Amino acid sequence: MFIKKPSDIKESEITPKETFLNRRLFIRSAALAATTTASVLLYKKFNPLPLPDKAREKITDIAKTSGSLSTDEKPNTLKEITNYNNYYEFSTDKSEVAYAAKDFKTKPWRVSIEGLVQKPKVFDLEDLIKIAPQEERIYRFRCVEAWSMIIPWVGFPLKALLDKVEPLSSAKYVAFETYYDKTQMPDAIYAGIDFPYVEGLRMDEAMHPLTILATGLYGEILPPQNGAPIRLVVPWKYGFKSIKSIVKIKLVEEEPPTTWNIASPREYGFYSNVNPNVSHPRWSQARERRIGEFSMRETLIFNGYADQVAHLYAGLDLRKYF
């Protein structure tokens, strides 16, 4: 029997991760070890998938080559980044997403760009990757539940893609839609949110040089659990704004709907900027725990990117437009 816990119970943020996983492993082991078949399933569930891990030492030079666009903080390990994931289409349990997504099919893949543009087009993934040189950038990545990571993404500026389709002057927002397939994502019905997942940005946010479309991390192709084959990364916003496995981008005049704002507008605003001065209704945003660390640290306004993006919100009440 498979039992889903309510998504608002964040035991993994209360207990240190290693302790949490070890306790769960012990409990499940006791329940399943009665048969050989169950033991095999247990092994698959709780042993991280083998993933490519080439030349990590080169990551330390990324900040130097990317200038102010990269942080000089030490990245999380590949194991941490690829085995602790929010991807509700596959599972609401962060430690189970990697296994649940391992057979996700990402070829062929197409992304349609439509709406208020001069040149709407459907791009193959290969064409998208050729639009601009792939860059490696180390970005802070902050989740709303008070945990964070430092991730070396591989990708290109979203602006480079939008310039290709020539936005009309009437386009004020960019709407995104993710891939959804019930046959590949059967556990999505337990997530408590509607699919396909949708997100949005203002045009100036979308055109900002920090905003990228990521196709890889740690110098490798993006794994399924991290949003393969192409995802959005907006480092000064909470992680749920960085929509995964994108299949549609539409330029529109009105503010587009976003999944978590639809699900709970009191808790998740359209902007979703990292702001330690505005608490989530169920927890404080003032401190965060970096995955792999025990102690908490202070949360930085705009996730540490205030110098680059604060001007976008000049005169905007960040408590009202949260």
Descriptive overview:
- Helix content is 22%, strand content 20%.
- It is globular and about 50 Å long.
- The protein is built from eleven helices and twelve strands.
- A hairpin with a 3-residue loop joins β3 and β4.
- The chain is α+β, with helices and mostly antiparallel strands and 322 residues long.
- Strands 3, 4, 7, 8, 9, 11 and 12 form a seven-stranded mixed sheet that branches.
- The protein has a single domain, classed as Sulfite Oxidase, Chain A, domain 2, CATH 3.90.420.
SSE arrangement:
Blueprint: H1 11-14, H2 17-32, H3 36-46, H4 62-66, H5 78-82, H6 97-100, E1 110-115, E2 121-124, H7 125-129, E3 135-143, E4 147-157, H8 158-165, E5 173-178, E6 198-202, H9 203-206, E7 212-217, E8 220-221, E9 231-233, E10 246-252, H10 259-263, E11 287-290, E12 297-298, H11 306-309
Parallel strand pairs: 1-10, 4-11
Antiparallel strand pairs: 1-2, 3-4, 4-7, 5-6, 5-10, 7-8, 7-9, 11-12
Helix pairs in contact: 2-3
